[in-house]
Each structure stands twice: as C-alpha cells, then as structure tokens.
Amino acid sequence: MTEKIPSIVIVGRPNVGKSTIFNRLTGTRRSIVTDEPGITRDRIYGNASWQGRSFEVVDTGGIVPDDKAAIPREILRQAQMAIEAASQLVLIVDARAGLTPLDAELARLLRRTGKPFLIVANKVDTQMQESLAAPFYELSDDVFPVSAEHGYGMDALLDALTSHIEPGNAPAEILGDEQEEHNRPSGQVPGQVNVAIIGRPNVGKSTMLNRLAGADRSIVSELPGTTRDAVDTIVQRGEHTYRFVDTAGIRRRGKTKLVAEKLSVVMARRHLEQADIALLIVDASTGVAAGDANIAGYAEESGRSVIIVMNKWDLALEAAAEKAKREAETQQSRQQHVVVSRSRKHTGEKRKKAPTGRVDPAQLMAEYETIVRNRFKFLDYAPILFVSALTGEHTEKLFGLIDRVTDARRRRISTGELNRWLSEVDLSRGTSPAARKVKIYYMTQAATSPPTFVIFTNQGKRLHFSYERFLANRLREKFDFLGSPIRFLQRMKEKREHGNPTRDKSSARKIKGSKPNKGYQR
Fold first, then answer.
1. Is the model's pLDDT at 273 over the cut of 90?
2. Which end of the chain has the least Cβ crowding within 10 Å, N or C?
3. Rounded Cα–Cα distance for residues 373 and 389 (Å)
4. From CA 272, how far away is CA 304, in angstroms rounded?
5. Are 229 and 40 in contact (CB under 8 A)?
6. First to last CA, the chain
7. Which backbone phi and psi does 507 adopt, to 5 degrees?
8. C-alpha span between 128 and 118 (Å, rounded)
9. Which H helix or E strand runs over 145?
C-alpha cells in the first residue's frame, strides 16, 4: 500500500503571498499570482522535497471567518477540509502590514486544532527588515521572516518544516493530487490518463469534477468565473488511474478584463496542452454557443482527444417538457373554441393529433445530437454523452468512454495491416482539387497520441484537407479511432532523372566528331 507523505497546509488572510510561497516551495508556477486579492479559492496541491525529505504542500484561499458571502464561505470550508488532513500548518502574514486582528483570529483557530503550526512573516526582503516580524511573536514562538518573491529566508523555513520528516520518506509512486511538473516535464505519469475538463464559465465543470472525484474537491457556485486556478485530483478505479483537471472557464479575449481572468485562461489552455483527453462541457439547457465552438477549436488544434459532454440534461428535459405542456394547453384551448360543422365531418377530413405534453428523451437526445454535430462539424469523431453532473445521471458512463478513447488514442497499427487496408480502399472516392489523380503508394504509422501516419503519394504538394478527412474517416471505420484526431505527414515520391546527363553529352559530342571529356566514365 502506498504510504501518504506529510501534508503541510498554507493558510492566511487574502493577499499575503500564500500562492507565491506555494510556488516557491514546489518549484512550480502552479498557483496564479497577482496583486488582486482573493485569486486562490480552491485547494491547490503540490509536491516538494528538501534535502531528501518529501512532503505535500496545500495552498488554500484567503480566509475571512466572519464573511457570510457565498464564495468566502466556500473558501473557508475548503480550507477546513485541508486543515483536517494536515500534519502541519503554516500561517502566512504580511510583515509590512503588521499584526492585524484577522491574523490573530486565524492564529487562534489554528491553535485550537492541536496541530503544530508556525508563522511565516512574508515580504521581508533583507536582514535589515527582519524587525518587521517582531509583533508576530505574540502569536507564536516560531516566526520565520521570509521573502517569497526573492527567496530570502526560505532555507531556514524549509529546515523547520522538514525537521520532523524522515529522509527518504517519499513512496515509490506518489498518488497525490498533483505531480511535480519539473520531475515529469510532460505532466504524464506512466499508466495515468490526464483528463482536462474545459468549457465556458458556469457550464458545470466544477460540479463534474466533484462528481467524478466523489468529493467536494472544487468550489461550486452559480456565479460564473468561480474557478480560477486549475484544480486537479487523482481518481483510482480498479486498475485505472485518472487525473482530472478542472480548468477555469475560457472566454474570448475581449470578455476578460481582470488580470486574474486573463491568467486563468492562459493556465486553462496550458493544462489542455498537457492532457490526453479533453472533456468539453456544454450546457444542454442553453444549447451550443459560439464560445463552445471556439473552445472546441482549441482542443482540436492541440491534438487532444475530445469527448463532448452535454451537461445539465435534466434541466434540458424539464425545459422541453414545459414547452410541450404549454403547446398542448394552447392546442386544447384552440380546439375548445372551434365549432366543427357537419359538412366537415362528412368530408372525412382528419383532425391533427393534439400534442400530448410528453417528451420522448430518446427523440430529444437525437435532435440535440444533430444540432451539436452541425455546430461541431470539425469534431465529427468526438463521441457525445448526455449527463447531469448535479444528479449523477449517466456520469458513470464517462469512465468507460474515457477508457475506450484512451485505447484509441494509443492504438498502433502495423505497417503490413495498414497497407493491406490501403489496397482495399477506393481512393477515387476522395475529393481533391489536385490536377493529378491521387495515388498513395505506401503508408506507415509514425506515432500515437494522437495517431500520426506517414503517406507516400504521387503529389507534388500536400493533399487537400478534404482528402485527408476522407482518409481519416476510412481509418476510423476500420480501426475505431474513437474521439481521437488523426494527423498525416506526407512524403512525395522522388522524381527520377530520365537518362544520364553525362552520357547524353558524350553521345552528342560523338555525333559531332568531338572527343569526350577525360573525366567521363562508362
């Protein structure tokens, strides 16, 4: 069984530098850092090590205990969940701002937990400024003046944090909520599937993460833009390991005004680049919007496999049922005011069947799928799943679908099998504006994730995209590359020189009666 490493939780009031210290300890830029207060809201996990001692670092949002607003209340709840699982607590304070009543209140709250805690007086840039940390000795005997931005005092802090940790304590495989990116540059762990949850703001991404993780991992709110940092968690199901990353809602550049929102979009796209599969969450109750198509374009360009998740399907069914009910009532009201003449009865004219006010979920699902396919024509290979993250309806199917798409993404076809398949394909069915008829002499698979094929043709320039789409569709029909884009690398056939120029020149000289050059060889 994998041993859990010690967890060190960072807490403090807003805008004291918690995220900067988190990034300094983990050696990453995992948390967004700006001058705006209240950027971090969810729990952010990272792994760190110091002199052979490994530990987990948890960054929490700025705590305001007496704030009754929805977001601060959820931030406090998330922080309390992290504190319960902590082995050591670190209270971050602003040395330049001095001791505040909120700092004292947080120190009392941490002391009541009975867990060891120390105070980090941040924003002390030099030794001459260490006196700024003096007032905080009223709260604890362990006060460490540091500068998270410049690294001053971090060595002494790390020595104190790891003094009770045994050297070499790191397990063979760390299954924490965050893998150190500098240990594995691609962010990929062998056997692990990285899944990025992407979409517009307020489409249910955080609710989906909590449903898949089986825990309140991310703050859920009706306010759009609640998630700013990327929140990730590891889910183990049988022999499969999944790393789900809840990204911030992606908006157009003109819609993002705050620096934090702009950085959130940048971080979301960066995590998309590191994923294997993208769960594109779309709000089924409002339909497909232009922003959904833009985000789908990002996923397709990045080469990620895509699963289209139509969330809030329960709300879509309710809206359709209400609409059908209104139509039935309207039709019934009209029929009550219509006087049917006897002549109409004798003519045998059939009346229109009145709406029943009921909705067929299968029929509605088929209509929705047609609309989604029309809006996402470039994602015709992506499967569509209708779910409700809030109620859990059909969400269990996601794991099986993710496994199937992952297998397709990593599938490798032998060269012999590919060329046998190629000999059976009617290439004349493909449309291409090329002047010469397209001939493919040879094909081989060069890479996986995504599947990439090298084709040798008789063309002098790249095949038209419509012809590549034709080949990709035929490949999917045969080898089931569900959800995965297919890439082609084209190699043109080398032109052979007709005749030997040297031989031709010598022949010409012989005809004229001249001698060939001394360097000519038969």
1. no
2. N
3. 22
4. 8
5. yes
6. 76
7. -65, -40
8. 22
9. strand 143-145
- The more confidently predicted of residues 79 and 515 is 79
Count of other CB atoms within 10 angstroms of residue 266? 14
Cross-strand bridge partners of residue 192:
241
Cis peptide bond N-terminal to 450, omega within 30: yes
pLDDT at 284 over 50: yes
Q: CA-CA distance, 140 to 312, in Å (whole number)?
A: 49
Query: What one-character DSSP code corresponds to residue 375?
Result: H
Q: Which of 45, 32, 26 is nearest to 243 (CA)?
A: 45
Max alpha carbon distance in the chain (Å)? 114
> At residue 393, what is the residue type?
E
CA distance 383 to 368: 13
Angle at 98 between CA 95 and CA 102, to 5 degrees: 110
312: left (phi over 0), alpha (psi -120 to 50) or beta: left
> What average pLDDT score do residues 152-161 get?
93
The candidate with the shortest Cα–Cα distance to 432, out of 410, 403, 407, 458, is 458
- CA nearest 142: which of 115, 165, 167, 105? 115
Beta strands in 356-419 (DSSP E): 384-386
30: nearest Cα among 11, 57, 5: 57
Q: Tokens for 478?
A: 């045969």
Q: Which two tokens stand for residue 390?
A: 């809030």
Q: Which two tokens stand for residue 415?
A: 């060269």
- Residue 40's contacts (CB-CB under 8 Å, 6 or more residues apart) are 18, 19, 31, 32, 59, 60, 61, 62, 228, 229
* C-alpha separations of 268 from 119, 251, 272, 442 in Å: 32, 11, 6, 39
pLDDT score of 400 more than 70: yes
The CA R_g of the chain, rounded to the nearest whole Å, is: 32
**Ranges of H-type helices in 150-237:** 154-161, 205-213
CA separation for the pair 28, 22 (Å, rounded)? 8
Residues 6+ apart with CB under 8 A from 434: 459, 461, 463, 464, 467
Q: Say which residues have a Cβ less than 8 Å from residue 100's Cβ, sequence separation at least 6.
A: 13, 93
Positive/negative CA dihedral, 467, 468, 469, 470? positive
Cα distance between residue 223 and residue 71, in whole Å: 9
Q: Could you count the other beta carbons within 10 Å of the beta carbon of residue 262? A: 15
In contact, 161 and 8? CB cutoff 8 Å: yes
E strands present in 227-355 = 231-237, 240-246, 277-283, 305-311
**Average of pLDDT values for 122-137?**
92
Q: Residue 208's closest CA among 14, 402, 50?
A: 402
